[in-house]
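Memo to structure team: turn this sequence into structure tokens by end of day. - J.P.
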Amino acid sequence: MSYFNNKKPFKGKIKTNFLRFLYRKLLFENHTEKMKNILILLFSTILLYSKCSTPQSNAKLNKSQITLIKNDSIKIKTDSSLSDIKEISPINIIKAKLLENEYSHHKDIQITFKNSGKKSIKAIKFEWFCINSFDKPANGKYFYGEGRFTENFTSLIHPNHTKTKIWEDFSTDAYKITKIRVYYIVFNDGTKWGNDDH
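Reply from structure team:
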């Protein structure tokens, strides 16, 4: 019984014995190949211990808050604290809603948006993402796609005016809109906003 009570704790014993073993191998053997292998083993162990001890955070900045409404429609609210740090689109999306197509089982989308800028706009490019009932990316109108859809609006919209547009037959199985945005705008004076590399 006294043997177990007087025994030193096991903490750190393996690491100490391992380092003694490596030291003896390096000191008493002159084989170059074995020394290389031992050094590689030593440095990889040290690297492994150092990587395990550093915490990493994967925090992401939430740039917008999306509130889901009945009938698969959404309203998008931008966080007021972030308005200083991101480039704000002159088009505000007020509402987006999935509709049943009148002539088929495909889906239509209705988007209501407002020009909150100071200049008239003559063209807008929209992008939205949808999922199907299985929470997988929705298919396009020709039964392929990855849940991403784009359409253009080419009609004059003056400052502080609101428009509603319906794009018919865009998807075969869309169930819910997960994200919607404007990514490119052409103003009536010829200037542009956004990036057209989509």
